Amino acid sequence: MDHSCAYAEDNGMTDNFEQIEIWSHLVNRILDYCSKKVIADAIFVHGWGDLHDEMIELTARVYKESGAKFILLNGAKEYEIGAPGFEYWKESLVKKHRIPPESVTGIESASNTLIEAQRLKHFIEEKRISSISIISVPQHIIRAFLTDLGVISQGNSNISLYPKSLKEVDWAEPIVIRNLSGANENTTRLGRLAAEFARILDYRKRMKDGDNNFIIASAKEGLEHLEKER
User: Mean pLDDT, to the nearest integer, of 202-213?
Assistant: First the structure.
């Protein structure tokens, strides 16, 4: 992350050291939640093409630990072009990990994180859910959590969100991200993580400038939410 880009972000702070401290605490809190068991009404998994079998195993484990009633998946046929999607995930969860089929459901196909969050909010309101574990790959979990929080908190929804991801991953491994938009990205997981921080700052700035196509909580808001849930 280029800390020189932390242009007072959205908290009104101009001191880069304060920004770094907020981000550091936020990342540490998210890592804490990746490591501990939590009780939640449901689980939502953001669609991603990387590490799908490992993420399916994680999802099954979180389901069994949390007492969740639902595993909610992105209903897309592919989470990246050529990568497994809803049917593969559901079949693996049911057949390999013995999750009851009636517990695995999906939102309408969503092509990006914001649309996923908006459809997740609809599901939460429909089912009157008060707590949910948010699952995504390590390089995406921070933006996924902040996007979900930004969308769900609109309208003063009092929902507890718990970010969950893999605790260990090969950050230096080269990966190819085949976006549903048709664009390919050759990078590493660490490279994508760095790009995610840039996206968060950019999307937050666009939101503050009045662009309704971008909704995302600030790092400070994310940290306050996780501190409250401790």
Answer: 96
Question: In whole angstroms, what is the distance from residue 200 CA to residue 196 CA?
Answer: 6
- Residue 59 CA: distances (Å) to CA of 35, 86, 163: 13, 13, 12
CB of 128 closer than 8 Å to CB of 89: no
Place of tokens 């401290």: 21
The stretch 24-39 carries a mean pLDDT of 93
What does R_g of the chain's alpha carbons equal in angstroms?
17
Q: Which domains does the chain have, with CATH numbers?
A: 14-168+215-229 (3.40.50.620)
Tokens for 169, please give them: 């991953």
What distance in Å separates the CA atoms of residue 115 and residue 205, rounded to the nearest whole number?
A: 19
Query: CA-CA-CA-CA torsion for 28, 34, 36, 39, nearest 10 degrees?
Result: 120
- In the numeric block, the tokens 């979900």 are attached to 148
Instruction: List phi, psi (to 5°) of 33.
Output: -70, -30
Classify strands 42-45 and 131-135 as parallel, antiparallel or unpaired.
parallel
Beta carbons of 162 and 180 less than 8 angstroms apart: no
The 8-class DSSP code of residue 93 comes to I
Q: Taking residues 120-138, what's their average pLDDT?
A: 95
